[in-house]
Each structure stands twice: as C-alpha cells, then as structure tokens.
Design a protein that fits this description.
Elements lengths: L10 H15 L7 H18 L10 H13 L26 H21 L29 H12 L22 H14 L3 H6 L5 E4 L2 E7 L5 E5 L2 H20 L19 H12 L12 H14 L4 H8 L17 H7 L23
Antiparallel strand pairs: 1-2, 2-3
C-alpha cells in the first residue's frame, strides 16, 4: 500500500537520516562498523552524484541510471595509476574506473536506501524498480583483488622476513627518515598476518595486544569478527616469531609517544592505532622490496583470497579454512577460492587413479611381443 502522504525530503536530508539509522545498527550488533561505513560512503557518493538539493521523491528510474553510470565512470581513488604494477603487469584499458564488484556493491547500497525510503514514506515509488543499468558482466577479478600466485606470495613473505628484502628500490623511498620513525618490524608482521591468516582488514586494525595468548607452547590470536563472533587462530611459527620481535618495538613507540596504556597491537610511529587506510600503504612499501619478477599489486582483501586459495589448493580441510577466515558457511569459500595457473596440469600429472602402490605415477607398460 502506498503511503497516504510523502515526506518530501531532499536527497541530502534523506541520506543523513538513513546513515544515522545504519550507524545505530552497529550498536545492537545488526551491522559491523566496517559495513556501516561502506554504506555511509556509498550514500555520500550518491548525494554528490544525484544532487543534494533535489527532492528524493522526484528521482526517476532514469535519474538512478544516470547516477549508476556516473559512478561506473568515476575513477577508482583507492589506488594511484600504475602503483605496484611492476613486473609487466600494466593497467588494462578501463581499469582506472570502478570494477564490476564495486558497481554491484554501489547498486546494492542504493537499493537498501530506497527500500527504506519507500517503507518510511519518503518516496511514493521505489525508482530502483525502473532502473535498467546493471554492473557489467564480471569477466574476472581485478589484479588487485585476485589471489597472488605461489611465487608472488612467497616473494612478499620473503621480503617481510628479510631486513633488506629481495630487491632494493631504484630510488629513495618517500617517508620519514628518522630512526625512531622506522616501521619495518611492524610492517613485516602486518604482511605475514594478512598473507598467512587472511583476516579482514577491520579485524587486523582492531586487534589489541591482549588478543594474543599462548596455550601449550602455541601462540594464538583471538580474532573479533563480524556479528560479534570470535575465533581463535593459531599463528604459524614464523608469524609468532615476527609477533614476538614486534612487541618490544611497539612498547618503545608507545612510551615515546606518551601512550603507554594504548592497547592497540599495530601502532603508527606517533603511537596511535593504525587505521584501515594505512594497511594498503604497508603492503605497497613491502611490495617495493620484492624482486620485480614476483611483484604484483594486491589489496588486503586480495591477501585474504591468497590465504584461502593456497590453503585449499594444498588440501587443507575446508572446514579448517572456513574457521581460519571466520566464515559462518562453507559455501562462502567458493568466492575466495581463485584459480591458480598450472593447477590442472599438476592434478593430471599426479592423478589418484593412476598412481602405483608407492604413490608415484607408473610408467607406461611395455607392449607384449607380437605373435610370430
């Protein structure tokens, strides 16, 4: 049933009320803070593209189409053009615009906004029902989102383990040069945690020192994930060693900054909790230390794909991988399992039905001699 009277709010007024409602849901556990901020960011983009002073109820399906197309053509501001594309991985045509995944996410954000607007009496009819623009067919994940190959992941991990990395940058790296502002030990821990455990970036930056504990000689990380769920994940030996090496460095940073009570695990050189946006910078700095042949741009979420892909490819139990990543359903793993080059060839070379008793693929049997 249509509302008897519509509250003719402007686009900006409706957006402000909606975002306030969305953020209130984080207090009751209905939404994670990270998801709420994604909604808020998309709604703010919608306000800019649609026009803050327009009346929400006046928007038509054609207006929504224009907003969706304008967003699709909008440059992706998360990464600088050409950043991290060494080693022959140049940008493809159109890669500077929004990815299909981002377009689909933006459309979902608008759908939830207008669905609420219709139920709240802000619009007579939901204009999304008359929209014809959809995200382009997803022909493959962007390089920044796809899992790293084994060689690329190993190159990144080796750079994190080594004080100097495999390759020195050709030019001096920008950034602080004072010794008390160096963050190599922290950056190494960030990269190792992301690559081997695949946490969400929000889980990483929310981590506190007290979330790590030792049980029976094994170091564990109690990760506080989506929906108030927690999971205890054991750290691989090398990652635990990086954690132990970072703790005294972190304590020194906190003391110098006058923040000895700061609980955050990851601190900036100023002694403040590392922000979500800082994590990409950490990865990019570490990538500059990887030899060019193994270097490829990747996001924190791409490293989450990397963790899932290589654990599953190595035969790790699917339920164990689900628990490491913090998924509530096994079916979600399908979106994180990316195709690796050469994996079909490896599978066919060691086919389980053609192995001998010793586990090796037997040689072709000799032909019997021809009858004379």
């Amino acid at each position: 049933m249509l509302p008897a009277e519509v509250n003719r709010l402007t686009v900006e007024e409706a957006a402000d009320r909606y975002v306030e409602l969305v953020r209130a849901k984080t207090l009751t556990g209905g939404l994670s803070p990270g998801t709420a901020e994604v909604y808020a960011r998309d709604v703010a983009t919608f306000v800019r593209l649609a026009g803050p002073g327009r009346v929400l109820d006046d928007l038509t399906g054609e207006d929504v189409d224009a907003v969706l197309l304008a967003f699709a053509r909008k440059p992706d501001e998360r990464r600088k053009p050409g950043a991290g594309n060494a080693g022959g991985n140049g940008r493809r045509p159109g890669e500077g615009t929004q990815s299909a995944a981002s377009q689909a996410r933006f459309r979902r954000s608008l759908s939830t906004l207008f669905k609420h607007a219709a139920s709240a009496g802000w619009v007579h009819l939901n204009p999304m029902t008359a929209s014809s623009v959809t995200a382009r067919e997803r022909g493959g994940l962007r390089p920044e989102r796809r899992a790293l190959t084994k060689e690329q992941a190993e190159g990144l991990i080796r750079a994190a383990r080594s004080p100097a990395g495999d390759a020195e940058p050709a030019a001096p790296e920008p950034g602080p040069g004072r010794r008390d502002q160096r963050t190599e030990v922290r950056d190494a821990l960030v990269v190792l945690l992301l690559t081997t455990l695949g946490p969400r970036v929000s889980e990483l930056v929310r981590a506190n020192v007290e979330d790590f504990y030792t049980n029976d000689g094994m170091r564990y990380w109690r990760i506080f994930g989506k929906g108030g769920r927690t999971r205890d994940v054991p750290l691989p030996r090398d990652v635990a060693a990086a954690f132990d090496a970072y703790l005294p460095v972190r304590a020194g940073v906190a003391r110098k900054a006058g923040e000895p009570e700061e609980k955050a695990l990851l601190l900036s050189w100023r002694g403040r909790r590392l922000a979500r946006g800082d994590v990409q910078g950490v990865i990019d700095r570490m990538q500059r230390r990887v030899e060019p042949g193994r270097r490829r741009a990747v996001t924190p979420h791409g490293l989450r794909h990397t963790t899932a892909t290589h654990l599953l490819a190595d035969g790790t139990d699917m339920d164990a991988v689900r628990r490491v990543l913090g998924h509530s359903d096994l079916s979600t793993l399908g979106r994180y399992r990316d195709e690796l080059p050469g994996e079909l060839e490896v599978a066919m070379r060691s086919h389980p039905l053609l192995r001998g008793e010793d586990g090796a693929t037997p040689l072709p049997a000799e032909r019997p001699p021809a009858a004379e």
